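Data deposition worksheet. Section B asks for the primary sequence of the deposited chain exactly as it was used as input, without tags or linkers unless they were present during the calculation. Section C holds the resulting structure in token form. Section D is free text for depositor observations; keep each observation to a single sentence. Incomplete worksheets are returned to the depositor.
Section A, Depositor: J.P.
Section B:
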Amino acid sequence: MKKLFCCFFLLLLYLLLFPAQALSSARAGLLLWYHSVLPVLFPFMLLSGLLIRFNLLQRVLSTLSRPFRFLFGCSQYGAFAILVGFLCGFPMGAKITHDLLEQKKISRQEAYILYGFVNNLSPSFILSFLAADQMQHASLGGLFLCNILGSALLYGFLSSGSLRRCNLNQPDLQPRDIPAPVSAPDIQEIFRQIDECIYDTVQNAVRLGAYIVMFALLLGAVSLLLPMKNPAALLSASCIEVSNGIHLLASSSLPFHAKYLLISTLGAFGGLSALAQSASIASMDKELLTHYIKSRVKITLLSAILAIASILFLRLSLS
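Section C:
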């Protein structure tokens, strides 16, 4: 609680003592939310919520889920959480897993395992923003995908052994995958469900925007206090928010191999802002949040190992 108080007090001082810089930080956070996060995540949150509420995923996932079940022992709905989490970026993996658990589409054991690895940067973000724009080497996109998403997949495989042992020898359609037969809802019920889904999506989208602005202000305050030429201060500031953190590392004077390693590990961790967004949108309790943080740390370590291996064995020499 003391650390949280210190963060809020720091933000208050930043707003009072440096109003121009605080305005710039808040504007940057709002623009990031409005231009990048909202257009991408809002449609996915709305459509995925409707698909789950109206039980429209069975036919689509009946075939696609087989390789996911073999690798991770997950149900058809669990395969949907993995697909969305890896394709759409933070915090959609946590959001979909939470929705599936709330709708009783997956078990708590499966949700607990999924939370650990389905929340990641999207491939488009890694290829376009990270590799091509910030590192200015589009050819590194495949390596960053391997380091960041490959480490999450590897951790998911290693941590889902209990699910695989339970599910591999069972028939393709498990009892929890088959919804109970229900009568066709009337038109009022349909629109009520749509309205609830829209309200939930808008609420979550605004919540994400508030977190993004708050951490943009925190990054601005920390950038004023810490000397960014110091590697330790640079690394500390970059961990606050992943987009700005990648920019700080990529534009720094660090050697190329250090940039490559640190950006790979930061991309796997996701930053404190993504962690807070995921914990909030998935309504994580203390036990689940602890499990989530430990999982992100393990994925980050795996990403560092993969990045070091690629440096040693592929002899990266770009600069």
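Section D:
The two ends are 43 Å apart (CA to CA).
The chain has a mean pLDDT of 85.
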